[in-house]
Write a structure and sequence with these properties.
Elements (H helix, E strand, L loop, with lengths): L2 H11 L4 E7 L12 E7 L8 E6 L2 E9 H8 L3 E3 L3 H11 L1 E4 L4 H11 L3 E3 L2 H23 L3 H25 L7 H11 L4
Helix pairs in contact: 2-4, 5-6
Length: about 200
């Protein structure tokens, strides 16, 4: 269905440095007209320290993330990880992902292990504390701007609300120790668990 994506995967597979590829998100399940393309490449060594590339594939926005075998090896024996860093995100992506290339069974063995016993995904106390400070600061500052009666403050408040609202939503998940997995996941969670919020 997606020849450019297939060609890209084939080209990546031809490199001896590539030790694994998997798709994730709707790329791994069923793409819809609004889907982007998400996939992960595992290198032997990430000497260039590339984290991600954003590009267009099949006229779709595409996220390509890069990890290496050292990263996979350090994940193997962890019983808990931080949910909002790359450890937690990689494990969530792999668990729901579709392995496209895995010549040494590195991805398959890790996927089997996390399906059997998935590491606990924690939210650090420092992250929760940072959100607590931001949320309270924004509430106080936004209230002050709103009550000022000054047009400049009201216009500035419109800017502040652009980031204050998403910080409040991400704080909601952090305080409940739920790893952030993007806005669509947040909408689904709130529809199923907390419509009032």
């Amino acid at each position: 269905k997606y020849p450019s994506l297939s060609n890209l995967i084939e080209k990546l597979k031809s490199s001896p440095r590539v030790k694994g590829i998997f798709s994730t998100g709707t790329t791994a399940t069923k793409m819809n007209p609004s889907s982007d393309i998400d996939f992960v490449v595992v290198l032997d060594k990430n000497l260039e320290d590339i984290k991600s590339i954003y590009t267009m594939v099949e006229n779709r926005f595409s996220d390509i993330f890069f990890f290496d075998t050292d990263f996979l090896n350090q994940l193997k024996d962890k019983s808990e990880v931080l949910g909002n860093n790359f450890d937690g995100m990689f494990l969530a992506w792999l668990k729901k992902g579709k392995i496209e290339y895995d010549p040494e069974n590195l991805l398959s063995s890790l996927k089997d292990k996390i399906e059997e016993t998935s590491p606990i995904q924690k939210i650090s106390d420092s992250e929760k504390r940072d959100f607590w400070i931001k949320t309270n600061y924004n509430f106080i500052a936004n209230t002050r701007y709103f009550n000022s009666g000054d047009e400049l403050y009201h216009n500035a408040l419109e800017f502040r609300l652009l980031y204050s609202v998403i910080e409040l939503i991400t704080a909601y998940f952090s305080f409940r120790a739920i790893p952030w997995r993007g806005e669509k996941s947040a909408v689904k969670y709130l529809e199923q668990n907390d419509l009032e919020f």
